[in-house]
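Worked Example 4.2. Consider the chain below.
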Amino acid sequence: MTTHLVADLGPLVGAVDTGGGWLYVLLTKFGVGANTAKTVTDLIVRPVGIVLVLLVAMIVARYGAKSVRSILERLANQAATRSGSVRAGARVTTMSGLVAHIWRFFVFVVAAAIILGMLGVNLTPLLASATIIGATLGFGAQQIVRDYFSGLLMTVEDQYNVGDSVVVGSVTGVVEGVTMRLTRVRGVDGTTYYIPNGDIRTVGNLSRGGARAVVDLTLPGTSAVDLDRVRAIVGEAAQRVAARPQFAPHCIEPPMVVGFVAADVSTTTLRVMLHTVPAQRDAVEVALRQEAIGALAAADLWPGLEVAPPLG
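Applying the procedure from the previous section yields the following structure tokens:
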């Protein structure tokens, strides 16, 4: 009985093995010749299948790219709102376009593989070779992939921009360039550091939001006896600095004289702070120190400094 069953299925198995598919089998069942059935199948079924694959690929590529753009733009808007950066929108537009192109490329590569399979091309050797090559490249380039992925996320989140003062690990400096793989930082001593984005685990941005200019003044220990007078003199000096035309637009809070933050048998340390913007912090600190020392010297509270007579 088994022999008869195999014999009965012989024509059907042979038809399927020719690669004709269901239409080929159907035509041969109705008495159409094998060559004619194969020709009809090649001219109708396969072209229609290829067209359908291309249509589906176009739809997936288009709407998938739109979804990617939408998600990235939403993340960028949230990051821009938190950081107050006006450049995040332009940067995320560029990055979302790049990711959308990568998505479309991936979709059409898969569609091409499906179409080659429909045309009877044996993809097994190609896929085996691609798997081996891909695994080798992936193992050797995993750090590069990590750098690029980290750079994409940092760009979308707008963690820092060119010109920002940052602290990355033990490096403190100004960002001079940002790519998908590297961040170039100019250190305070002039050294240029090239930092792979994948190695940046913690970054401090000194150029976002407000800043405080902090000045510590070391005075003789006897100054503690006249604390109120010292605080008043330093506070008035800080008020004059805050009222200067170059600082006034950004010094929106009154100066804060903290008082003595440290003391020993011979000296005491007074701290004064003034709110400003990161770009002017160093200049405000210099002006605060000069103005406070000058005022204390004029009141004979800063030893060893001769006060020059006023000009004119």
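The first strand starts at residue 165 and ends at 168. The CA atoms of residues 53 and 114 lie 8 Å apart. Compare this with Example 4.1 before moving on.
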